[in-house]
Amino acid sequence: SSVSAAFWEHLRGLCLQDFPCGLGSWNKSRFDAHTSPSRSQPGQEESVMLDEESPEVLMELLRDPHSPWALPPDCSSQDQYLREVAVLAPELVCDSNVFQVLRTLRIVGKGVEKVDEGLLQLQKLEELILSANQISRITSANLPRTLKVLELCCNAVADLQDLCTQPPPELQHLGLGYNKLCGPSQNKYLTVDFWPNLVSLDLSFNNLTDLLELISQLSSLQNLRILVLQGNPLALIPTYRGFLVDSLPKLSILDDIHIGPEERHRFQGLARQPELIRSEAQLVVSIGEIKGVPNPSTHQQLEVDSEAPVITYSYCVTYEF
């Protein structure tokens, strides 16, 4: 399915045209632009208003967690905002008008495979979250130019070429964690030529292996302050963190850990010693528990003159990475 299809399905679930949102007998007089002269007669207008609900009452129905019209606790702030707009100004979320209101779009875990051109209708969209879907390719031409946050965590993105053809120029955060990026072929797309305003970059849990090549590209991102690379093979290199800290002096947070003055001083000069980066990793594997294998220590020693057969156990444990 496409993002647009998931978006419209999501809107239908918000019930923006149904009570207590939208227009109806519960609030129609407040938005009736063609009020008849008889409405101005004393007592009549009051009686009409008594048949309706005030904006305060309608808003309370949306916000009270015990209300049958309240959204679930884990809903996004944007969903709640749209529902409240549908109470105070229903015309703003009617039909295509909603495109002018949305600044955040969150479509998570909906099986989306395609980012289609329908997104271009969201002319003021600043934040697009498409985590936990099935997106393998994303074309930048279908992304609103106003985007500042693009989150694609937990998808199947393996190639950034289409995304970098015409990327949103004001993008500040790019989330590509838990995808299928392989280095060094994708490193060339992580430069200032494509992301001049990037502040935060998440590349965690991909298959990036060339630390030196990656740093040479990331060093051009002068605004980069937050970087996540944990979960990649290159993060297993013993000098990984120190080399990054010294190579990217403007970085503030690496792998969700703040970079303090003491750490930066400790690794000072390491970036000028690339020979210390070795193409090997050291792993320590600890066996906590093995199930289904008999414990030899529990078997009683056989008597010397016993005629019972002697049983010998041997085990082979294989690790696959």
TrEMBL record:
The record, for PROSITE patterns, names: LRR
Q: According to the lineage, what is the superkingdom?
A: Eukaryota
Q: Which SMART domains match?
A: LRR_TYP (SM00369)
| Pfam family name, one | LRR_1
Keywords, in A-Z order: Leucine-rich repeat, Repeat
Q: Does the keyword Repeat apply?
A: yes
Which InterPro entries does the record cross-reference, listed alphabetically? Leu-rich_rpt, Leu-rich_rpt_typical-subtyp, LRR_dom_sf
Q: Name one GO cellular component term.
A: cytoplasm
PANTHER family for the chain: LEUCINE-RICH REPEAT-CONTAINING PROTEIN 51, NISCHARIN RELATED
Protein name per Swiss-Prot or TrEMBL: LRC43 protein
The organism encoding this protein is Tricholaema leucomelas
The encoding gene: Lrrc43
